[in-house]
Design goal:
By secondary structure, the protein is mainly α. The protein is 70% helix and 1% strand. It contains 19 helices and 2 strands. A two-stranded antiparallel sheet has the order 1-2. Strand 1 and strand 2 form a beta hairpin. Helix 8 runs antiparallel to helix 17, helix 9 packs parallel to helix 11 and helix 16 runs antiparallel to helix 17. The longest helix is centred in the middle third of the chain and has 41 residues. The chain starts with a helix and ends in a 17-residue tail after the last helix.
Length: 469
C-alpha cells in the first residue's frame, strides 16, 4: 500500500503547487460531480437520444472527471496515510484479480476498466482526502452537483414526459429511460443527496425537501420495489441519525424537529398522494370511457372493451407487485432465489465468459445473477466474489458503528451511511457493478474514503471553509 501511495505522491505533488483559489477549486469539483451525474442520465436515455454510449468510453470520461476532482482536492503537502489492513487488502486483491481475469478470458464490457478504477483511480481519491480529512466538503459538493442536475432532469420529465405516459409501460413510469428501475436508481441518489444536505442544515433545505419528495413520487410511479425498499431503509437511517445527532444534541431542538416533520410530510405526500390520485383519476377516466362505449354498436364496442380491460389488467398487474399474500420466497424475490442457486453452483476459480449469461433451467433461458458479488464471481472467479462480499461486510459493520456508536458522529458519516445502505440493498438484489453506469455505485465508491483511513476524529485543516450554502 505504501508503494502505491508513494506513486500517488510522486504523480500528484506537482499539482499541489497550483495557485488556484479554493472557491474556484470547489466550484470545479462540484461541476465535475454534476457532469458525472449528467452522463449517467444521458446513458439511461440512450433510446430517446438515439445513441448508446460505449462503456469503455464512458469509463474513460469518468476517470478523467475523477482525476480532475483529485487534482482540485489537493491541499498542501501529501504524505503517507495508514489504511485499514483488512479492507484495503480485500479491495486491492479483488481489483487485481478482476484485472488479471480480464486478460485471461472475456469477462464482459466494462469489467477491465472497473478493475483499473478500483485499483488506481478511486484509491487516489481516498488518499488525497485521507490527507485532508475534511470529507464533509467532498460530500457536500457531490450532493449539490447531483441535486442541481437532477432538478433539471425532473423538470424536463414533468414538462415533456408526464406520469400519464406510464400507461404505455404497464403502468410503470420510465421517464426518459428504457427501464422503470433506472428511474428508481436516479431517485435513490437524489434522496441520499437531499437528505444529507437537509441534515446538515443547508439554507436551501426546503428546496431539497421538495426535490426528495419528487424523487419519492417518481419511484412510486415507476413501481420499482428495490428502490422503494431502499428509500424506506434510507428514511430509517435518516430518522435514527437525525434524532441521535440533531434532536438530542441540538441547540434548537424545536427547529430541527420541525425540519424533520416537514421532510417526512413532503416525502409521504409526494410518494403517496400524487401517484394514487393520478391512478384513481385515470381509472375513473377509463370507467367513463367504458360507459360511453356501451352506447356504440357491438362491432365498434368490442375492440374498445378489450382496450379498457387490458388497461385495467396492466394497472392491476403493476400494483400486484406489492401483493405478498400466498407468495413463496421465489415469487416474492421475482425468481431471484432460483437464479442465485444456479449461479452459486456454476462458480469456479477462473470465471466464465461474461458476454454469455448463465442458462437457468427453471427459466428456460439466460438471466443476470441479480447479485453483484455473484455476478463478479461468475465473471472473474469465486475469489473475486468472496472478496467483494467481504468489502460489503466491512461497509455494513461501519454503518452500524456510525449509527449506534458514540465516536463516529461527524456529518460525513451520515453520507457514508446513506450511500452504503443504498448500495448494500442494490448489490444483494441487482447487478450494481459499474460506477460509470449506476448512480448508487458511484456514490458508494466515493463514500468509502473515510473507511480506508485508520485515523478518525482528526480536526480538519485550520480555517477550513466551504462554498456558501
Amino acid at each position: 500500500m505504501k508503494l502505491l501511495q508513494s506513486f500517488y505522491i510522486l504523480i500528484l505533488t506537482p499539482f499541489s503547487k497550483l495557485k488556484i483559489n479554493r472557491t474556484i477549486r470547489h466550484v470545479v469539483i462540484g461541476i465535475c460531480f454534476a457532469v458525472l451525474m449528467a452522463l449517467l442520465l444521458i446513458a439511461y436515455s440512450y433510446k430517446l437520444l438515439g445513441f448508446k454510449p460505449d462503456l469503455l468510453k464512458q469509463s474513460l470520461v469518468e476517470c478523467l472527471l475523477i482525476m480532475i476532482i483529485i487534482i482540485m482536492s489537493i491541499e498542501g503537502k501529501l504524505s503517507l496515510v495508514s489504511w485499514k489492513n483488512g479492507l484495503s487488502r480485500c479491495w486491492f486483491l479483488c481489483s487485481g484479480l478482476i484485472i488479471a481475469s480480464s486478460f485471461d478470458h472475456e469477462v464482459g464490457a466494462g469489467i477491465r476498466p472497473l478493475g483499473f478504477m478500483m485499483f488506481f483511480i478511486f484509491p487516489a481519491l481516498y488518499f488525497v482526502w485521507n490527507n485532508r480529512n475534511d470529507y464533509e466538503i467532498l460530500y457536500q459538493l457531490a450532493a449539490k452537483g447531483i441535486c442541481i442536475v437532477t432538478t433539471i432532469y425532473f423538470i424536463i420529465c414533468t414538462m415533456f414526459i408526464p406520469l400519464s405516459t406510464a400507461n404505455d409501460f404497464g403502468y410503470r413510469y420510465v421517464g426518459t429511460t428504457t427501464n422503470p428501475n433506472f428511474i428508481g436508481m436516479i431517485s435513490v441518489v437524489v434522496i441520499i443527496s437531499a437528505l444529507y444536505l437537509i441534515a446538515n442544515g443547508n439554507r436551501y433545505a426546503i428546496l431539497y425537501m421538495i426535490l426528495a419528495g419528487y424523487a419519492s413520487m417518481y419511484t412510486v410511479a415507476a413501481i420499482s420495489r428495490t428502490s422503494l425498499l431502499i428509500i424506506v431503509a434510507l428514511i430509517l437511517v435518516f430518522s435514527i441519525y437525525y434524532f441521535r445527532q440533531k434532536v438530542c444534541n441540538g441547540i434548537e431542538p424545536l427547529k430541527v424537529v420541525l425540519r424533520y416533520v416537514i421532510t417526512m410530510a413532503l416525502l409521504l405526500n409526494f410518494a403517496l398522494a400524487i401517484p394514487i390520485s393520478a391512478y384513481v383519476f385515470d381509472m375513473k377516466a377509463i370507467d367513463d370511457k367504458e360507459q360511453r362505449t356501451q352506447e356504440q354498436t357491438a362491432v365498434e364496442m368490442q375492440p374498445e372493451k378489450e382496450t379498457v380491460s387490458n388497461a385495467k389488467a396492466s394497472a392491476g398487474l403493476a400494483f400486484n407487485r406489492f401483493q405478498l399474500d400466498g407468495s413463496d420466497t421465489r415469487e416474492i424475490s421475482s425468481g431471484r432465489t432460483v437464479v442465485w442457486k444456479a449461479y452459486l453452483k456454476s462458480m469456479n476459480l477462473r470465471g466464465h465468459n461474461g458476454e454469455k449469461l448463465l442458462y437457468i433451467e427453471e427459466y428456460g433461458g439466460t438471466e443476470w445473477a441479480h447479485n453483484t458479488a455473484l455476478e463478479l464471481g461468475y465473471r472473474s472467479g469465486i475469489l473475486v466474489g468472496i472478496l467483494f462480499f467481504i468489502v460489503e461486510i466491512f461497509s455494513g459493520i461501519y454503518i452500524l458503528l456510525c449509527l449506534f456508536g458514540k465516536k463516529r458522529n461527524k456529518s460525513y458519516h451520515f453520507f457514508t451511511m446513506l450511500a452504503i445502505t443504498a448500495f448494500g440493498i442494490y448489490s444483494v438484489l441487482e447487478v450494481a457493478i459499474f460506477p460509470f453506469g449506476t448512480p448508487p455505485v458511484l456514490l458508494y465508491f466515493i463514500s468509502l474514503a473515510p473507511l480506508f483511513n485508520c485515523r478518525s476524529g482528526i480536526k480538519p485543516i485550520e480555517g477550513d471553509k466551504i462554498i456558501s450554502n
